[in-house]
Amino acid sequence: MKRVLTLLSFLSCLQIAFAQDHTSDSARAALANYKNPLERFTAAIKYLENVDSYGSNTVDSALCVDLLQIAQSLKSDSLLATSYNWIGYYFAIEKGDNTTALEYYFKAIPLAEKFNDKRRISSLYFDLAGRYFSLRNFDKFYTYTKTGGENLPDKTSPKYDHMLVQYQRNMGTYFLEKGQLDSALFYVQAAAQTSERLKTRLFKLQMQTLLAATYARMNETDLADVYWKKAQNLSDSTDFRKETFYNRYIPFLIQTDRMDEVKLQTEKFWSFALKTQNLNINLTAALYKKQLFDKLNQTDSAYHYSKVESKIRESVFNQDNLNAMQAMAFKEQLRVMEEAAKKSDDEQKRKVNLQFALIGFGIISFIIIFLLLSRSFITNTRLISFLGVVALLIVFEFLNLLLHPFLERVTHHSPVLMLLALVCIAALLVPLHHRVEKWATHKLVEKNKQIRLAEAKRTIEKLEKEND
What we know:
Elements: H1 2-20, H2 25-30, H3 37-54, H4 61-74, H5 77-95, H6 98-114, H7 118-134, H8 138-150, H9 160-177, H10 181-198, H11 201-217, H12 221-236, H13 243-255, H14 259-275, H15 279-295, H16 299-316, H17 319-373, H18 381-411, H19 415-467
Helix pairs in contact: 1-3, 3-4, 4-5, 5-6, 5-7, 6-7, 6-17, 7-8, 7-9, 8-9, 9-10, 9-11, 10-11, 11-12, 11-13, 13-14, 13-15, 14-15, 15-16, 17-18, 17-19, 18-19
């Protein structure tokens, strides 16, 4: 109980720490106080989620490694899925390494699906979508976003809004890129409402930026400027995770020919990019620098940044990396198809087995009822007992087939818990079987008595007639 109270106290302090001090150094240091691996894992996840939501710090690689070590030591596939998710996120956010990020995301998905962890499944698919957006592959961006939306956690989950806002944001982004502005505005406005409930700076910055970009595309420049101003104030208040703002604002400035502001924001973006090791951010910043100098007719500077852009682009869109990503995506597609086929086969087999069990149970029940109601057969109790045992086994197998998928979900495929559940079912069936068997035997004895009495009466009547 003391450990639980300590953990709850830490999480409460963590929320306060982020509200007051976004560097969160004290909150990070406090993680070392947890000696219990599972408690440290839970506290570390809470820390990482708060850091990411506020956009106030980088993804801690050492903490991601610690998560992986804890998951491996506890031999927990569920924790392993979470660890892989964060490791992939580290390579995506910190390095812009799309290939490695996708590798860890794809490794995590089957582990999360094994436990039907909707919160983790949706997170992984949204993160996958983000990588394909960086690669400008909008079809896969949309596909993975839709899959993530189909796997949102229950509305009662504390993480429902956190996952919902990512789905709404991605859908709004997709329709904005496709020029379907009414649909884009619908999803972005919905995402803005969800982000207000979350009250996290990162999502708020992203929503203000997307609203501004959407209104700009709709030629509502005055309204767009209002949201650009709000987004710029949020962007200037942090040193991290503001690439979304620059990626939308600078093209808008170039399009509206506000060159003085283009110079200022491009230089800010370039300075921000140099502080990161993210290749995707560096590539975009170099592209805008090149476009700026092209507009200013400064050929030498434009050529320089053109070479920088080409060098970074080669790293991001390296053919070997693209081939590796295509192979991983293809393998995942095959895995999903195989899982669907296996699930379909298992379901079909289960239906057939249920039908056989019902047929067997029906036959045994019919024989017992026939023997009990028959007026022409005199049977013994041993036959009833034998048929009763067979019927009991068929009923148990029938219930096992019927309840097996439910028990797998509830017990998370744990053999011990599955065994205990089946033992409980058997414990309920055996007394019921004894009662039925006793009733059937009693009925049989009574029937035999009646048959013998009737035979005796007929014999007596026959003898009396012969004597007469």
